[in-house]
Specification:
Helices cover 36% and strands 18% of the residues. With 627 residues, the protein is α+β, with helices and mostly antiparallel strands. It folds into 3 domains: 289 residues, FAD/NAD(P)-binding domain (3-Layer(bba) Sandwich); 102 residues, Arc Repressor Mutant, subunit A (Orthogonal Bundle); 52 residues, DNA polymerase, domain 1 (Orthogonal Bundle).
């Protein structure tokens, strides 16, 4: 029945969907195997995409020709741009999503991609031959052969759920776990570990008193993830709501600590530092009298809500009692309690930058199997694994790798393969040393040309990019050439509380003032407004004008960061892979020898980022290279 495939993808989560779509769109005959075809890219935890650092990743996936941004836009019920009070390097888009429609849209996309086939089954192992993967075997007894295999098993590898003292085998509530693969990979020499994640109660919105909650509406400025103008949500927009815990709530929660698997020794694995359970918050921040909670809708029409900030593994009755002491939830009914989930992952330092494993050829890992947390991080890894599995199947041994100065995706993968993880990895803007270059507004400028050359980003995307850059440059050109007299701008400067002009200046000099935005100039300076009206922005008016403003106001910072990135690239271009037997370099520290032997860095730049490898160690390697 089954032919030989170029790429087989195991797992239909966010990583698996992006991987399968990318490989198939590039021309590989691809098979996606999942345990449940009704739950593609299921949002197991909160029904949202994006956020700080994560929103940039979704825009990068979109700029590359992936689907997470498109499907998020089509199914969004609220959109917000976070960190608007800070500089544009920190702006991070976030969307509230209709959970059910998100999965439906993904299935619709996957079923209509040429070269992509779907199969519902549980994968129980991989087929090996002479140190390389040659296919998979399934619970139904099927053997499927392929040139490459991508494992994106998420939280299903030996998954175990906890509600109080009750433990349930599974990778998600109501879904069975996946076994045998972990054991097989461990026997092959892979270093494995256990991580923990969690989720809160789901609440019936009809039982909530919204009058005592603070409403948080979405923005109405037309922001979205995808750079394609035609992609937008047709769904009714909904608000989120804010409330707080209190000391009475804390007391009830603490009364259940003896039955908490986190504190009675049942759970021994590490959870996400930056998305802690409510129990962890009470212990870590014991001095706090309240904790912020967000009540988020699960869809356009459903009454189901997600209580962000109330993740818990306590007994269900303790969770329920505590919930009913929170303002607005005195009569709350719940659909199900929160739970903790433990699962297997594999040390990501066992991967090449392409996400191919070092121990087994043609085998790729993507998503939570690599120790990450979050839909966005998973989708990004899936996209890159899909690209590189396709290239490997075509005989390309070099692969496609993004640098730390090119994308948050590059930062993510480099962090994983270089530093490894000791807790679930989550992306933040602070992880990127070149975040002024890696803004959410310019992901298309950074990535679309390369993705088009690769064959993934469409010609339409390239045309949109070139059009955007052309219009942006025209706007900047006008600002740099047009002189404004004090008389014609004094009113605006007074409104904005900035000092008046003493003589004529170029309009660009006015825009350089932090109090003045480009939209102020459009509104108050008639020649500029008339010039803008002549340009054909279509639906991209705000996007292009913001791009022009960022280029003007932050040009000095951007150029300085480019210079730093160019200097760092000199080290990135010095390849050392396979050139040294580190165990014999006694001039290196013992820790450096151990770490370098384990990670096997590709370049001096990567070696310099390995924890435990000092600048002195790097200097020794440079000397040995004749540098």
């Amino acid at each position: 029945m089954f032919p030989a495939y170029d790429v087989v993808v195991v797992g239909g989560g966010h990583a698996g969907c992006e991987a399968a779509a990318a490989a198939a769109n590039l021309g590989s005959r691809t098979l996606l195997v999942t345990m449940d075809m009704t739950k593609y890219a299921q949002m197991s935890c909160n029904p949202a995409m994006g956020g700080i650092g994560k929103g940039q990743i979704i825009r990068e996936i979109d700029a590359m020709g992936g689907y997470s941004g498109i499907i998020s836009d089509l199914t969004s019920i609220q959109f917000r741009m976070l960190n608007r009070s800070k500089g544009p390097a920190m702006w991070s888009p976030r969307a509230q999503i209709d959970r059910m429609r998100f999965s439906e849209e993904w299935r619709n996309v996957l079923e209509n991609i040429p070269n992509l086939e779907l199969w519902q089954d549980t994968v129980t192992g991989i087929l090996l031959e002479k140190g390389r993967v040659k296919g998979i075997k399934t619970l139904l007894g099927v053997e499927i052969f392929s040139k490459t295999v991508i494992l994106t098993n998420g939280t299903f590898l030996n998954g175990l759920m906890h509600v109080g003292r009750r433990t349930i085998e599974g990778g998600r509530m109501g879904e069975s776990a996946s076994y045998q693969i972990s054991d097989q990979l461990a026997e092959a020499g892979f270093i494995t570990g256990r991580l923990k994640t969690g989720t809160p109660v789901r609440i019936d919105g009809r039982s909530v008193d919204f009058s005592v909650l603070k409403e948080q509406e979405g923005e109405k400025d037309g922001y979205k993830f995808s750079y394609l103008p035609s992609i937008k949500s047709g769904l009714k927009q909904r608000s989120c709501w804010i409330t707080y815990t209190n000391l009475e709530v804390h007391g009830i929660l603490e009364s259940g600590f003896d039955d908490s698997p986190m504190y009675n020794g049942t759970i021994k694995s590490t959870g996400p530092r930056y998305c802690p359970s409510i129990e962890s918050k009470l212990v870590t921040f014991s001095e706090k009298k309240s904790h912020l909670l967000f009540l988020e809708p699960e869809g356009e029409t459903t009454h189901e809500y997600y209580l962000n900030g109330f993740s818990s593994s306590l007994p269900w009755d303790i969770q329920y009692q505590a919930l009913q002491r929170i303002a607005g939830f005195e009569s709350a009914r719940i659909y199900r309690p929160g739970y903790a989930l433990e699962y297997d992952y594999f040390d990501p330092t066992q991967l090449f930058p392409t996400l191919e494993t070092k121990l087994i050829g043609n085998l790729f890992f993507a998503g939570q199997i690599n120790g990450t947390t979050g839909y966005e991080e998973a989708g990004a890894q899936g996209l890159m694994a899909g690209i590189n599995a396709h290239l490997k199947a075509c005989g390309n041994q070099d692969g496609f790798v993004l640098g730390r100065d090119e994308a948050y995706i590059g930062v993510l993968i480099d962090d994983l393969i270089t530093k490894g993880v000791d807790e679930p990895y989550r992306m933040f803007t602070s992880r990127a040393e070149y975040r002024i270059l890696l803004r959410q507004d310019n992901a298309d400028e950074r990535l679309t040309r390369n993705a088009h050359q690769l064959g993934l980003a469409s010609g339409e995307r390239l045309e949109l990019l070139e059009r955007k850059i052309g219009l942006r440059d025209e706007v900047v050109g006008f600002l740099e050439k047009f002189s404004i007299k004090p008389l014609f701008i004094s009113g605006l400067l007074k409104i904005k509380g900035t000092s008046p002009l003493k003589h004529s200046v170029k309009l660009v000099d006015v825009l350089l003032r932090p109090q003045v935005s480009i939209f102020d100039l459009v509104e108050h300076i008639e020649p500029f407004r008339k010039f803008i009206e002549k340009l054909d922005f279509g639906e991209r008016f705000r996007e292009i004008l913001e791009s022009a403003e960022i280029r003007v106001k932050y040009e000095g910072y951007i150029n300085r960061e480019k210079t730093l990135a160019d200097k760092a690239k000199r080290l990135e271009n010095l390849e050392i892979e396979g050139k040294f037997d580190y165990t014999k370099l006694i001039s290196l520290s013992i820790e450096a020898r151990q770490k370098l032997s384990t990670v096997k860095p590709r370049t001096i730049g990567q070696a310099s980022r390995i924890p435990g490898v000092s600048p002195a160690d790097i200097n020794i390697l440079l000397i040995l290279l004749g540098r």
